[in-house]
Fold each of these.
Amino acid sequence: MAMYMPEKVELIEVCPRDGFQNIHDMIPTEKKVAIIKKLAKAGFKRMEITSFVSPKAIPQMADARAVTAAVMDTLRAEGVEAVALVPNARGAEDAIACGIDELTFVISVSRAHNMANVRRTPEESMEQFKGLVEKYGHQIKFRLGLATALGCPFGEEITAERVAAMTKFGLDLGCEEVMIADTVGISNPVRTYKLMRELLMQFGAQRFVMHLHDTRGLALANTVAAMQVGIHKFESAAGGLGGCPFAPGAAGNVATEDVLNMMTQMGIETGIDAGRLMEAVSLIREDVHASIVSHMALLCPGAPEPA
Ligand code: COA
Ligand code: ZN
């Protein structure tokens, strides 16, 4: 029996937000801008370029306005929609004023992680998100991101029923998509398959974007598990950077170049140019004080090309 795989997937690049937010040394704004512009030429249709959050919470994102202003023309010219993460009304207002196309609002399914991340209970965050969508939903597209949907760093049980209820909440508010995040890279292919099958049966594949971290090396396996169910939208970070500063032990996102390589080897269309993507990875390697941990970036010269 043939294994089901989508013919085409969308890869959403998140290195400039999730990747950079966890870097301790401040990356100069012009270097972020150069990296985003390089990434924009690789063929992404959407890129999360920054977050409009409290600089006390995430100092690295303090230049969100300057970064956005500097890259917007290039993004428009390349046909890339700008996505930004916001935690509150102030963030949403700033992002709208800067011309961002789509906002991600993250709520953690785990109560402890939501408290650590935004100092609110998930219920309080849901109430807040409802207010934001009611107030700004006619001006900008909102996406609900469910952090820790595949496991909690503080040991809380995360049930599929709870994830489904929070998904329904987001869709009922008018979101077109809900992002399902394995924030700490704690899931495994069976868990991912079961959760995503449950969600797909209730809401349909087009509603979901997956966001997987590779803490234990299972992000590509989780990606395949999600695709087997029918998921066809994935976030990833060039260079494998990333991690939530408020989730203990969180490591990098699955690397875009590794996801791209896997998709290409499997004959799945992405629209991404591998050469251009690797140019951006080289720039990240030069300009950002972080280890590049992707397999493709560390590939030994002379490694055989798959036929
Ligand atoms: N942009 C810029 N500054 C902001 C802001 C925003 N969107 N939201 C709040 N602030 C500032 C406030 O002006 C205030 O500054 P002050 O102390 O100089 O007066 C400070 O941040 C704290 O604001 P407050 O409203 O009291 O919020 P808080 O302390 O309860 O923090 C959040 C709550 C949500 C604003 C903060 O925790 C946050 O930004 N979290 C984001 C976490 C994140 O990005 N995690 C990783 C991605 S999932
Ligand atoms: Zn993440």
Amino acid sequence: MKIKKTLIETQQIENRVKELAAQINRDYAGITEPLVLVGVLKGSFIFMADLCRYLTIPHVVDFMAVSSYSHSSNATKASGNVRIIMDCRENQQDRDVLIVEDILDSGHTLDYLIKNFKSRYTKSVRTIVLVKKKTRMSYPVEIDYLGFEIPDVWVVGYGLDYAEKYRTLPYIAELGE
Ligand code: IMP
Ligand code: MG
């Protein structure tokens, strides 16, 4: 599998991430307890790093790791179940939580995470997703902040991978034969 074409340029990503951060700064203005940003590893690590540096509201950064795709023979097919591989370290009880996700496809991962965080007696749970595929979501989840909508193709770069490859490209590209 090789890079087919660039879908979202570095500069476009940077501009959009700034806009999203500005929106978050407005929405959470005046919060007293720091917002808990929970990045979903590994895909969100670059998005998180860029986003949090434009935040002016009090916040803390946390990560969790989940697995929902098998990276074996069919790396682009969902295996159907979500597994927490590594949980957060911050306590979420009575805290405002913002789940930071790289990409939304079926919605399964985010649906699972939202329910999971609500069961932790959080004060609020919102979601920010960098890219969403224009597909019929099998799990219709609410996205509070969305970066871009893209066609239903496999994309890599800016944190997104194909079997661990292309993750650190500074732009988002479509993968092809
Ligand atoms: P969902 O559970 O079907 O919404 O899939 C979400 C997860 O699948 C994301 O967090 C990614 O880890 C992975 N994923 C889905 N589509 C892509 C893609 O095009 N490129 C890279 N990873 C993807
Ligand atoms: Mg992910």
